[in-house]
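Input.
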Amino acid sequence: MTTTPRARRVQALVSAPLALAVLGGCSVAGKSVAPAKTTLNSSTTSTTPAATPSTDNLPSTDNLPTASVLISRAQDVLVRTKTLTIRTTITVPGGEMSTTTRRGRIIGTPQALTYTQLDYGTEELRLIGATLYVKGDATYWGEYATDYANRWTRSPDDEWTRTAIEDMTIVPHVDELLEEDSEIVQALTGKAASVTMETLDGQRMYCVENENGVLRAWIDPKSNQIRKVEGYGTDGDGTGIDELSGYDGDYSDIVAPKTTLTRPPVEASSTT
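Output.
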């Protein structure tokens, strides 16, 4: 049996959280994502701004904080963050690349996702309240492109929609940076993790690197925000990059489309 891109999306929709995708874990597509860490619960999230260094001067490279201190500071900021953008780029052997951009509220809605892969096309999702809207290009829709390409569809309440909503959330990526037992946190806070100062996008940043150099995180010394996490497969498995931006930004542009079609059942996209 072969399927059109729409049906394949449940299996291949989005990259797994970075540690799972690069450090040897398996894909979470098609499964329920991990629940949000209790400190991310919207009823307990603090609105108090995160603490920032007391001086505007960047630290001397001779007296840098430890990796565990830097990660802890970054976690304190992230757990208070209500809206965020995470752009994930996964490159596998052979050069195939996929990009996924998640943006909006970490808990609740609105949320938006854009996913692009060469042989898959580009797909956009918007979650407004309990309603999911989907738009794909001609490659994504395949044989249905004439009717649906580049047009917003409203997704009915079915298993495909529920899986898509679980997969698109930012929460698993945030939890990978918050949970003490996550592969990322353990690797970046180990005793052998190192700290240097590096330039990222023209700005001096802390760079925390794990023991064998396959995982690095860049942290802004002024805001304590994690700006980038990059992982390298130890056996040539590819690379994964998470770029974080738009902390507590304005995402009022994520709104319900004015005109929509009704997405047909996923089963209709399967052919033998």
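Residues 1-16, 19-56, 267-272 have pLDDT under 50 and may be disordered.
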